[in-house]
Design a protein that fits this description.
alpha+beta, two-stranded antiparallel ribbon, Butyryl-Coa Dehydrogenase, subunit A, domain 1, Butyryl-CoA Dehydrogenase, subunit A, domain 2
Length: 573
């Protein structure tokens, strides 16, 4: 199945949701002219469709190979990655002082969307590198930034994030890796990290690992954690004392080598402190927040690819006469009501998730510009974007298999790969349950509901659809209830509340798109087929997805009583 970049959709969402023209009105983003935006959309789509998409099946069936601590990527991957580097696709939103183009993050988001839709597993490499760039920009020393960022921004070197250990997953405070000071100001790093995405590969000459570890005498828990820069190749050109012990065999994302990394086997692993000692969690959260948006975008990526494939199959698969027809002539299954419903659901969910993710990306740019309220809004929508975006990816990929029928369960069609690839996204970079807990904890209770109230006000000022207005009202009411609920009751309803808030936000942004589409149709401005399809997708979202979300209100406020009616032993019996 080939990939067709959704350029018209991306441009429309950039215009209506991110406000790309408004961003370009600021001096910092003045280079984001209409011509530049169009060139990026066309170019990113071309490299994604031409270089990365043909490798999607290759990476799934011909996995990266681990031999004696070294990982070799499948055929064609190194050349495709070099095309990405040489084309400057990693530099879009990088700071100009370090080789970047200084363009809006929203445009870099489009590049990642195209690359990830073409090849989700492969795109994890630039995703992790962008997180390392953000961490060094925010917390690195001048010397660290000057030496490492020019290579990381271009993608010539890649970056990783090393949190997880065999005994410390989501409970980061339980980690055991150590960092012992050396006389020259460096540290000796020792420990094992697991689930390290692109921890070892042959795409770049150097891999820059950002590693969480404890210094001597550091307090237990997250307070005692520091962040260290640990390069595969030291600045003097020598190999560091680190190795890839193995790579995992996984359900999906086979093109991404997930490494077990060992540091300091010979007590000679050199690392350098990033930021202050015991400031590791603050620095790592910079990386994680960047990664959470990018993982949410993976939901859009896999949804777009699965939808394109399902539409192509449904248009060609001839089976059965239409029930309402007068003849017995078989028709393409796209003509049957349930298949039509499924396809519209896929399109509506994909477009809703894209709207929410692009909106979040725009808040990154607005925060960069110092626009009032942008930081608070970004904090609030990040768990929505990560969790609901990836939930959508799983649902749409599953629906894509359903459209294919039995052939969807057969690997050769490719539909099964999308489902396998999608399933990791609700798990890594903080499970979606953790995102929901973050929403009702840090993000809602942390500011007394002020951030949610501001979002509600913005949505209510525009929303016209009666069901959407009802959903917004319900979100407001549940938010107020949660501010007064005890912790267990709040957490018990956190996932349905996150879903409701996400759907309300996406519905608000989609309804805006439908109004713009109607105005452009009336003015004969744009492609009528695209604009009519946009109206239809939005109408489906409001009529089906929004009303379903309204039904979650009772679950969001049900409390924890039923969950703890049984003891752990009784539940497990």
């Amino acid at each position: 199945m080939t990939y067709t970049p959704p350029i018209a959709e991306q441009r429309f969402v950039l215009d209506t949701v991110t406000g790309i023209a408004e961003l370009a009105g600021h001096t910092a983003f003045a280079e984001a002219t209409p011509d530049m935006v169009d060139a990026i959309l066309e170019g990113a789509g071309a490299i994604a469709a031409g270089e990365w998409a043909p490798l999607n099946r290759v990476g799934d069936t011909n996995n990266p190979k681990w031999v004696d601590g070294k990982v070799t990527m499948p055929p064609g991957f190194k050349a495709a990655y070099q095309a990405y580097v040489e084309g400057g696709w990693g530099t879009i939103d990088g700071p100009t002082g370090f080789g970047g183009q200084g363009l809006p993050h929203a445009l870099a988001f489009v590049v990642l969307e195209d690359l990830g839709t073409a090849n989700m597993g492969f795109t994890l490499c630039p995703i992790l590198t962008s997180g390392a760039v953000e961490a060094l920009l925010a917390h690195g020393s001048d010397e660290q930034r000057a030496f490492y960022l020019p290579k990381l921004v271009t993608g010539e070197w890649t970056g990783t994030m090393n949190l997880t250990e065999p005994s410390a997953g989501s409970d980061v405070g339980a980690l055991r890796a150590t960092a012992t000071p050396n006389p020259d100001g460096s540290y000796s790093i020792k420990g094992t990290k697991i689930f390290i995405t692109f921890g070892e590969h042959d795409l770049a000459e150097n891999i820059i690992h950002l590693v969480l570890a404890r210094t001597p005498g550091a307090p237990a828990g997250t307070r005692g954690i520091s962040l260290f820069l640990v390069p595969k190749i030291r600045p003097d050109g020598t190999e560091n004392d680190l190795r890839c012990v193995s790579i995992e065999h996984k359900l999906g994302i086979h093109a991404s080598p997930t490494a077990v990394m060992s540091y300091g086997d010979n007590d000679a692993c050199t690392g350098h402190l990033i930021g202050p000692e015991m400031g590791g969690m603050r620095a790592m959260f910079t990386m994680m927040n960047n990664a959470r948006l990018n993982v949410g975008l993976q939901g859009v990526q896999i949804s777009e690819r699965a939808t394109q494939q399902a539409l192509g199959y449904a248009s060609q698969r001839i089976q059965s006469a239409r029930a309402s027809g007068t003849g017995a002539q078989p028709v393409a299954i796209i003509e049957h009501p349930d298949v039509r419903r499924t396809l519209l659901r896929m399109k509506a969910l994909t477009q809703g998730a894209r709207a929410l993710l692009y909106y979040a990306a725009a808040q990154v740019d607005r925060k960069h510009l110092g626009i009032e309220g942008a930081r608070q809004r970004l904090d609030l929508v990040t768990p929505l974007a990560k969790a609901w975006g990836t939930d959508v990816g799983c649902e749409v990929a599953s629906l894509g298999i359903q459209v294919h029928g039995g052939m969807g369960f057969i690997e050769e069609t490719g539909a099964a790969q999308h489902y396998r690839d999608a399933r990791i996204a609700p798990i890594y970079e903080g499970t979606n349950g953790i995102q929901a807990a973050d929403l009702v904890g840090r993000k809602l209770a942390g500011d007394g509901g002020a951030g949610l109230a501001a979002l509600i006000a913005d949505m209510r000022a525009e929303a016209k659809d009666a069901d959407l207005v009802s959903l917004i009202d319900a979100v407001e009411g549940i938010g107020q209830w949660m501010l007064e609920a005890d912790v267990d009751d709040r957490l018990a309803g956190s996932v349905p509340f996150l879903t409701m808030t996400s759907v309300a936000t996406a519905g608000w942004l989609l309804e805006r798109q439908a109004r713009v589409a109607a105005d452009r149709l009336a003015a004969d401005d744009g492609d009528p087929a695209f604009l009519k399809a946009k109206q239809a997708s939005v109408a489906f979202f409001l009529a089906h997805i929004v009303t379903e979300a309204l039904g979650l209100e009772a679950s969001a406020k049900a409390g924890a009583g039923l969950l703890y009616a049984l003891s752990a032993e009784e539940l497990a019996a």
